[in-house]
């Protein structure tokens, strides 16, 4: 009887609890005196905020990362970033695999819920590839960074910086050890900019797209095919993710160039090639990464609006990025185009998108917008400051971006708590929270009578 009455958590609830557990452990470790450079205890709220921003791979900070924390603190932050980027569930399953333990159906369901793959087939194999691919990408990134960081900081510090920033960039965390101005000293360094952007792109494009591209490449190589239709062989998800990402990066770069071209507070005094590089980096990092090569406080109002849009959209599904995701927005735009053209079905690249997918995309965007609106109102009520700064900070937190207009460090207790909630919701996903804490009873498959309503 006791066994039957015991409460069982859903897979979504367990995933949320796993992130909370990681945050709790991180908070406890960062609260220790040995975690700070001064050997003093960090306040519980600041330790909690740092743990949340690390696990949720966001990057907003209330204390200077480079100077406040000791080497032990930096290692804890790095491990939290890696844990949040791969998720606690993925790391746990990976350890079980390495130990030769059998993966239960319950654990497979956890993975399916986290990766949103709609299938249990090959999940364990998929996790193995994710773990190996992550280590490979971060390792190569660290090697590439070392060519710049080792000459700058020496062997020991340079290698440590290379590893830390490779992990932070790939996981789209945006937390750095350089100093109070972040990556601004590297605004003209082409090599560091390109490696950082590549790592951000690789982490944010999504693991599903990775394996699809690799699979198509292998098939074409095995057949020794020389036709030019590589893109056509990809899945619809990969096509949408890649094409939408390219449009956002190129479009964002052009808009930043236009709005910041003569702005002396950002890129106005740069040469044209450096202006293009800085605008490109801003376009890439604003979608979820959080590294900054130009002062965000100096951005013009139109550029801030562009940033808010990029933050809200974010990266692609099944990756380390935040936001509502590129394929989600693309699906809604396609659905709107279908309604305008009077067609019956949503199609793209000669494939049909199901009505269920369209409804899910609409739900994600509407719930995310409602959450962002609620968070902005709460911050405006709880904290003083420029409304534009508050808007920017909230969207940065919800999109797990981490870019700041020098506002996060000025907020009080209420503001820190609100931003923590925003970062956590941004990493888990607002719709996941709704599903996790909403009772869903089994319903009979009965279709109700249809009746028309007037919309628009």
Description:
It is a single chain. This protein is mainly α. The protein has one domain. The chain has 19 helices and 2 strands. The chain has a two-stranded antiparallel sheet with strand order 1-2. α5 runs parallel beside α9. The radius of gyration is 22 Å and the shape is globular. It starts with a helix and ends in a 20-residue tail after the last helix.
Strand percentage lies at: under 5%
Tally the beta strands: 2
What is the molecular shape? globular
Based on helices, strands and strand pairing, what is the structural class? Answer: mainly alpha
Approximate helicity band: 55-70%
**Main sheet: strand order:** 1-2
Question: Quick recap of the structure?
Answer:
The protein has one domain. It is mainly alpha-helical and 456 residues long.
What is this structure's SSE topology?
Blueprint: H1 2-5, H2 11-30, H3 44-55, H4 65-68, H5 71-86, H6 88-98, H7 105-115, H8 123-153, H9 155-170, H10 190-204, H11 207-223, H12 236-260, H13 272-285, H14 301-313, H15 326-341, E1 346-348, E2 351-353, H16 355-382, H17 387-398, H18 413-428, H19 430-436
Helix pairs in contact: 2-3, 2-5, 2-7, 2-19, 3-5, 3-18, 5-9, 6-8, 8-9, 8-10, 9-10, 10-13, 11-12, 12-13, 12-14, 14-17, 15-16, 16-17, 16-18, 17-18
